[in-house]
Amino acid sequence: MVQRKKLRSQRWFGKLDKDGFIHRSWMKNQGFPDHVFDGRPVIGICNSASQFAPCNAHLGQIADAVKRGVWEAGGFPLEFPTMSLGETLMLPTAMLYRNLMSMDVEESIRANPMDGVVLLCGCDKTTPAQIMGAASVNLPTIVVSGGPMLNGYYRGQVIGSGTDVWRFSEAVRAGTMTTAEFMAAESCMSRSPGHCNTMGTASTMTNLAEALGLQLPGCAAMPAVDSRKLTIAHLAGLRIVEMVKEDCRIHDILTRQAFENAIRVSAALGGSTNAVIHLLAMAGRVGVPLVLDDFDTLTQDIPLLANLKPSGQFLMEDFFYAGGLPAVMNALLTVLHGNALTVTGKTIKDNVTGAEIYNRDVITTRDKPFLKNSATVVLKGNLCPQGAVIKQAAATPKLMQHCGPAVVFENIEDFKARIDDPHLEVTADSILVLKNCGPKGYPGMPEVGNMALPKKLLEKGITDMVRISDARMSGTAYGTVILHVSPEAAVGGPFAFVKTGDKIEIDVVNRRIDWKVSDTERAQRQQQWKKPKLDYERGYTSLYIKHVTQAHEGADFDFLVGHSGDEVKRESH
Q1: Counting C-beta atoms within 10 Å of the first and last residue's C-beta, which end of the chain has fewer, N or C?
Q2: pTM, whole model, 2 decimals?
Q3: What is the per-residue pLDDT across 41-68, written as a single tens digit (0 to 9) for each?
Q4: Domains along the chain?
């Protein structure tokens, strides 16, 4: 019989001295009996529930179900809170705090007596932040996402989170929808607990957590209010105890093969461009070599299989009923690393083989896909030497090769002040350029890249234009939008020197952006450029600006790349 490795938690609870007395005694004020400290696996339940993060507000119920499973398996569940990032409420942007949440998660796991951890997540940044933090400690880890909300309905039509907000907002500005109608739709969109029901960033990242092998099969797409969500949470509680006994850690699962699977799955789902930044950051925490170009080279043969908003027609509730992620991964199995290990203790191939597609209007097959060319494309050129990205599935085909004059906005305030000016010199052929919205420049790289179109063009029926920025955009958004320009304007990348009237040519087919300005002119502008003053001289935001990396590196902190493990060298008393 193989002797089990001594549990990490016994450093706290297994001592018969003053320190052990302290660690056990104060825990007993919660009513825990002696025998729970006898060497059973201690499972931390990392709960990102918050009423300021509506997508995650229901996670307390999920935590209770996980605890049932842990107790049943002979473990000792202990729930702990973590910072929560509400995408719809946090200012200036939830992305500013992703790295802070990852630090919170990492240090909470390392500092406390746990042998394994269950991550409860859902809203956009909570999933990558928790995985980044857990990966830096490397304990047995399993993810349980809270699930998407139910379909929204307005006047008999299905409406989806975010995607239809952008559409309705433009309709109001164009004069084709009244403010009263806009306000009525507000109460129809979010009608149950759960995260966004489109294939936005929340659904992208929870599905990619499953594609990486960190969730039980079928968990990601399961609606938040489905009773089976509590069942799968219970099963996750059972399984994490087994993972501790097997010493199956998060680094065993987050391999290069797992990340390649996730990148390909994201393409087939029409996943958010935000996945690029999050996967790069997560890979950096486990030392897996991953670069921006991988998101292009690995997906050129991957068609869009999921007919989901914003790229398609349906919502996450429909996706779950149609077979969910296991069905998509089974359809992709020949181009995935089927032998990649997952939290089930089995491989991806074991988990998804035989998963059926129940509705081929929602989930298509590789021989008859929803779209042939859909993946996020990496563009490079003299405007963005380190790259930029565009989501093909959300763009207008005729604009994928386009040349036009730039209309430049130096920052978001400049954009908001001038975009609806009837005297703004702009046509449908113009290219809107928004600067100083990158990781350092905003700070935090907000979701403002899908710039609203000029009102005077909307009134003429124009529905899309080429837009370029060093910002991000919501995964629920759409349009011919080039994002994540790197290096960003605020650090003096070439993007900083673009002026209104400059010709810019994009060629998505050939992965190029060309800024039609001579080398001499560019050099002169660089000499004249003055670095923008960022008025943040204290606290977390100051730390962020000093240490955040560029978009093509995952916008993580330079001092967090890599991992420190689970060892704590000193006692507290």
Answers
A1: N
A2: 0.96
A3: 999 999 999 999 999 999 999 999 999 9
A4: 377-533 (3.50.30.80)
